UniProtKB/TrEMBL annotation:
<comment type="similarity">
    <text>Belongs to the TsaE family.</text>
</comment>
<keyword id="KW-0963">Cytoplasm</keyword>
<dbReference type="InterPro" id="IPR027417">
    <property type="entry name" value="P-loop_NTPase"/>
</dbReference>
<dbReference type="GO" id="GO:0005737">
    <property type="term" value="C:cytoplasm"/>
</dbReference>
<keyword id="KW-0067">ATP-binding</keyword>
<dbReference type="Pfam" id="PF02367">
    <property type="entry name" value="TsaE"/>
</dbReference>
<dbReference type="InterPro" id="IPR003442">
    <property type="entry name" value="T6A_TsaE"/>
</dbReference>
<dbReference type="GO" id="GO:0046872">
    <property type="term" value="F:metal ion binding"/>
</dbReference>
<dbReference type="GO" id="GO:0002949">
    <property type="term" value="P:tRNA threonylcarbamoyladenosine modification"/>
</dbReference>
<keyword id="KW-0460">Magnesium</keyword>
<protein>
    <recommendedName>
        <fullName>tRNA threonylcarbamoyladenosine biosynthesis protein TsaE</fullName>
    </recommendedName>
</protein>
<dbReference type="GO" id="GO:0005524">
    <property type="term" value="F:ATP binding"/>
</dbReference>
<keyword id="KW-0547">Nucleotide-binding</keyword>
<keyword id="KW-0479">Metal-binding</keyword>
<keyword id="KW-0819">tRNA processing</keyword>
């Protein structure tokens, strides 16, 4: 089996936190594991510098839900929604990099997607606050072949952790 976030360690008290070094192949398995347990109402936040690997993980999650072909980066579209039958769970892949004002964010109406689907959000720090306290927060650091993923697992996700 691929790399498991199971391998991660619970680094501190409070929200569970896991850290894992991973390569490009493992990114696919990690994304698939998270994508496989996504349910309506879930929010996954993907943080990290330019080119950290946020879209790569989101792509693997979408692939796990049935998307054929490579999901485009939503950098320019900002919101890229997917719906059945191309995926088995409605998922909106969002990139907030170009959002400058809170008002622009409100206009996206992201919460509407949560009634029957999930949100994958790159550059969530553009929200300027904690928009979704129940979100699974993934942060990628490092570059080249030395990338590290940190997952902050909120209570809403604890029952699903560790992932297969
Ligand atoms: N774990 C990894 N190990 C090695 N290379 C990786 C890993 N994850 C992603 N990459 C590579 O890093 C590059 C950037 O990845 P990606 O587009 O996913 O980053 P991003 O964080 O979404 O960037 P942006 O900030 O522009 O949205 C790609 O070439 C990808 O293949
Ligand atoms: Mg990206």
């Amino acid at each position: 089996m691929g790399p498991c976030l199971r391998r991660g360690t619970n680094t501190k008290a409070g929200p569970m936190s896991f850290t894992l070094a991973y390569n490009l192949d493992e990114a696919d398995a990690i994304g698939a594991a998270i994508g496989g347990v996504l349910a309506p109402g879930d929010v996954v936040l993907l943080s990290g510098d330019l080119g950290a690997g946020k879209t790569t993980l989101a792509r693997a999650m979408l692939k796990a839900r049935g998307l054929a072909g490579e999901a485009p980066s939503p950098t320019f579209a900002i919101v890229q929604p997917y719906a059945p039958p191309e995926v088995d769970l409605p998922i909106a892949h969002v990139d907030l990099y170009r959002i400058e004002e809170p008002r622009d964010l409100i206009e996206l109406g992201l919460d509407d997607y949560l009634s029957d689907g999930a949100l994958l959000i790159e550059w969530p720090d553009r929200l300027g606050g904690d928009g979704w306290p129940g979100a699974l927060e993934l942060t990628i650091s490092g570059a080249g072949d030395a990338r590290v993923l940190t997952a902050r697992v909120p209570p809403a996700w604890e029952a699903r952790w560790p992932l297969p």
